[in-house]
């Protein structure tokens, strides 16, 4: 900011006082790679003491035109989106970039964001989490030369990080089959605003394919399709328990919905896992605390990977643009062998 | 952005085409209050069609110097912080402001943020969630004329939104006392990096005062002090269950830690609430799904209130700078009357 009444300090002054080159000052203050933490700290302290203000243009090249990345999520209070943002923010800030956070809960809000983007032009890239981007939106982004990376989706035309949802639900089905279950139910969830969204369709397909391969015919009475909502999952479990021949095990599309389903089982006077086994997807932090068996997906890692991908795109360096991170079974206390 | 080869479009062009005044165009594009949604949408579409780009300076007055607010949270994946951010982002964006999100997990990271702030000067305000701001940091903010609002803290020198932690723990104690419990334990948690942090101290004091008023002498064997961590809470419950005379009810400083404590009770072959009643604080979304009795605090409301306070400070309009939002008992299935 400069001390009032004193001449402005420039980068050369800071470099001289710190005994380093101007490039090092620039990299240290922009948080770019290739500067030791000790040097970064010392340069930063000297710059601060001298009242030196980085001119925004000075560090444009290293950090893109704006130094900012927009992150679009449906809702900040939901664990998965928060965990992805945790990974994104950590990696982007390490590289000296800032995160602008936007909640776009539905398609209208998403259209609004992309409609306003050209009149603002304030980010170098957009990371889109847990939602699709339609063709019109994508063309607008390309025209603006704003990079786009998708987390938790699958897009053939721009870079993505995701899990393999078909494989995740195969793992869930395989666990229940290995425990001897044959009447296996599924509570399948679809976000109401985006019925075409792949992830949930893949979760249903992976489950059905695994059962088919095990020679188990599909019983339509054992699948309940709901919007992505915990209370809906609680009701869905009630529907499954009301079937003439209820399932002995149930696969639910997320941990939060699985916990809601378990509440229904307990309220019905039945026991988990003795009467019904339940498995979710996520490894939500509360899954460990509630002893919930689940298929774990690394949420913060998906965010961190998307951030590194974004930095590479901004820098123009080559990067693997289609990353699938692994999922795995975490067996806990809500699944058990089928009683003989 | 302007179409290549064509002259730049200015705000007057957009106003003429839309048949409104320039002030309306400015307010519509900046998202300021006082413009109908229909007008906002039409002006925005016309501006987009004409390739009009808002000059960043044009809307400075309505939205502060930068149009951005920094939000500091310890960790994006934890429910409370995510829910506060949800409320903040919703209200700030409605007013046309953007949220820059920063995770500062400990005191070092916080010092780093405030050290770098002067050399960046890119926000009009900072909302600090779930952490203290020390005197040095506060003086730096005042020198920069950056507004500061605190959520989930108590500060005498700058505006805050919070719950009354003494009252919240009194409510928890009162519920257990009303159920007839007399041997009441507490798992009290302290964030290791900020031992002076008021909230947790208040939660302990409110609980102790309520027991004292009920004429119940304090038994040191019934309180376990831990860092703010679920696994630590799980171990703490084991310690309470190992006491020569274990508690019949336990108050835990958060829902997540309460669920961890319940897991320990169940693993010990005991039942909740028949053998031990457990109550938390928060009303985490999973509290409803796990039937956990708790003292609810409105997290998103605290965020929204902080955002509105921030907007008033930027605009220079009067605002209540000390807001305490209410907490309330949500009785569910983890607390029950003391068996006779």
Automatic annotation (TrEMBL), chains A, B:
Pfam families: LacI, Peripla_BP_3. Residues 9-63 form the HTH lacI-type domain. InterPro entries: HTH_LacI (IPR000843), LacI/GalR-like_sensor (IPR046335), Lambda_DNA-bd_dom_sf (IPR010982), Peripla_BP_I (IPR028082). The keyword Transcription regulation applies. Gene3D superfamilies: 3.40.50.2300, lambda repressor-like DNA-binding domains (1.10.260.40). Keywords: DNA-binding, Transcription, Transcription regulation. The keyword Disulfide bond does not apply. This is LacI family DNA-binding transcriptional regulator.
